[in-house]
Amino acid sequence: MKNFITDNKDNITTGVALAAFVLSIFNSIHSFIVARRDRENLKTELHLFKAYERDGRKYPRSITIKAVNSGRRALILTVLGADYDNGTQGGTMLNHPNGITLNEKEQYSADFADVSNLLCNVDDDGESRCADNLWFEDTLGTKFYVKGAKKRLKAFWKQG
Q1: Most buried among 16, 22, 148, 160, using CB within 10 Å?
Q2: 154 Cβ contact list (under 8 Å, min separation 6)
Q3: Global pTM?
Q4: Which helix (H) or strand (E) holds 79?
């Protein structure tokens, strides 16, 4: 056995190095997969509702925004914001000052009528501005844009 080891020393060293390399590759791939699954991830959607009347009462057109934490780490949402058609931004604080904590698979939804200050308001110069995109912001300052908001808000404003 001793002769085998001394005669094949280079082959054994190469084999051990190759095995260590392959294990390292598998470990890197596993770490990448776990890190992707473990990161914060917010899935958002926007639904439009037309104005309607029921039992003699009129309901204005509105939107519902939903957010679901599809990551493993908790997210603390602090702002629901909008990009306006005049290039400015604005928003509303969520559950000020603490924000809204979403653990894994928890959801948050908000309903806004078309008269909402978030959707349409007057800026500091007295000019009217309407939202053309919506987003959430977390405590780290990361913005999560609402999926399909630009397209749906454009349709919302065309409904008049």
Answers
A1: 148
A2: 132
A3: 0.70
A4: strand 75-84
